[in-house]
Amino acid sequence: MYYNVSVDSSSTAIAGAAMGTMLATIIIISLIAYVISVVAMWKLFTKAGKPGWASIIPIYNVVVLFQIAGLNPLLLLLALIPVVNAFAMIVLMIMLNINLAKAFGKSSGFAVGLIFLNSIFMLILGLGNSQYVGLPENKA
Prior knowledge:
By secondary structure, the protein is mostly helical. The chain has helices at about 10-45, 60-70, 85-105, 110-115, 120-125. It is elongated and about 80 Å long.
């Protein structure tokens, strides 16, 4: 017994067009999110006395953020260790956001906002009236 299952070309074309539209939409939304994050980091970097163009370079921008937050950028090497990297990066990003809030004179509530809604709170830091005050020196 032979079953003839045919798919007409119009349904294939419609499916292809739908997939293309979805892909284009995802790319456009991603580009918008990237531009917003670059603008936020650019303003944040210039407030902290760092070059704004550093926000465009993918790994270097995290290194500069670590410097602004008073963390050693060599800690990022923990991301290269298998198994440890996932846990280490979660802890490092939490530490980064807490120190970043402190460096701009913000409260721990703002640090929680940076942890959970990073893009929005980075925009608030970069475009708002907050000033970079640095981290207090450890007195031992």
